[in-house]
Design brief:
The chain has 352 residues and is mostly helical. The chain contains eight helices and no strands.
């Protein structure tokens, strides 16, 4: 009685589980049909979440679906795959653009450094030119000042002479009755000379002011030149850091590429060695040799390829004609027996 009761409980549990799975399969089938009708109206394919929801049950319900509905699911998968590939390509393009931008930035910094250096030379040349001009102007001013002092002294002497002469002429005029027209002409000449002297003094004052302004401008240029030099030192340090960072990134990329290539070769070696084992088991020694040799050349540590080459060597070569473990020599000796290795094109055909 207890055994029958346990059997009934187990059977009911199994029926409930099967019924639940059937319900789920029908639910998934209805979901696919509804989404296909929605696709016919809106052209909206399934998402990755939808594919994940359908996949566990698809093998059981695909025979209940129409060819159009199955094609709808396949088109959705292809679209998801294409979007992933486009995203990966966009990421790769973005990384390449970042690398190109860094290289261009380095070139621009080098170019700017050269321009700043050239500008520094120009500014230094201008500063030297202003210094020479300032010195020459100052010397000219000193010479003009000495000349004016001498002219002023000469004028004073002439004034004293004219005063003495005027007094003498007045006495002579009163005594002898000589007219004073001649004396007036002397006075006019002295007035004109005073005007010339004042104009010369004004010119000297203007020259001195220009000289002072040039000196102030030169001081500003020297200050700007020192500031540009400080910026140049900072940019040089930053450029060196960026260059070192770029070098490390290039080394990391190169290492990743090498690892990826090695992984691909090892994967190809495994594929070729599996095919070589199949050929060896089906009594196709030449094909087994060619595939095993290609697998060993891609990964000398491939144990399956080494085992097949050793077996073929024992079967086809004399015991003393090859060294055990030297698979390169074994391949060369077996090549003389089987006459030829696989070409790269033939290897790619086997891998595909």
């Amino acid at each position: 009685m207890k055994i029958e009761l346990s059997h009934d409980i187990l059977a009911r549990t199994i029926d409930d589980k099967v019924s639940a799975e059937k319900k789920m399969q029908r639910k998934v089938g209805d979901f696919i049909k509804n989404r296909y009708r929605y696709y016919q109206e809106q052209k909206a394919l399934l998402s990755q979440d939808d594919i994940n929801y359908i996949s566990p049950h698809f093998a059981y319900i695909k025979f209940e679906l129409s060819d159009e509905e199955c094609q709808f699911i396949q088109d959705s998968k292809d679209s998801i795959k294409e979007k992933k590939e486009q995203k990966a390509a966009a990421e790769k393009k973005k990384q390449q653009e970042i690398t190109d931008a860094k290289i261009n930035a380095e070139k621009e910094k080098t170019k700017r450094q050269k321009i700043i250096g050239f500008a520094g030379l120009i500014i230094a040349g201008v500063a030297i030119g202003f210094s020479i001009y300032f010195w020459n102007t100052e010397q000219a001013a000193l010479i003009n000042e000495r000349e004016m002092f001498e002219k002023n002294q000469q004028l004073k002497r002439q004034m004293r002479e004219i005063t003495l002469r005027d007094t003498t002429i007045s006495k002579l005029s009163s005594v002898l009755g000589i007219q004073r027209d001649s004396i007036n002409r002397y006075i006019i000449q002295i007035g004109n000379f005073n005007d010339s002297l004042q104009a010369e003094r004004n010119r000297i004052d203007t020259l001195y002011q220009n000289l002072k302004n040039a000196h102030e401008h030169l001081k500003r240029l020297n200050s700007e030149l020192e500031l540009d030099n400080n910026y140049l030192i900072k940019d040089k340090g930053k450029l060196q850091k960026d260059k070192e960072k770029l070098r490390k990134e290039k080394e990391e990329q190169k290492s990743e590429i090498t690892k990826a290539k090695t992984a691909v070769k090892h994967a190809e070696s495994v594929t070729l060695s599996v095919q070589a084992q199949t050929a060896y088991n089906t009594n196709k020694p030449k094909e087994a040799y060619q595939l095993a040799a290609a697998a060993w050349e891609r990964n000398p540590k491939n144990k399956t390829a080494c085992r097949i080459l050793g077996n073929l060597a024992r079967e086809r070569l004399d015991a003393f004609s090859y060294p055990k473990g030297n698979y390169k020599m074994i391949i060369d000796r077996l090549n003389g027996v089987y006459k030829g290795k696989l070409t790269e094109r033939q290897i790619k055909q086997h891998l595909n």
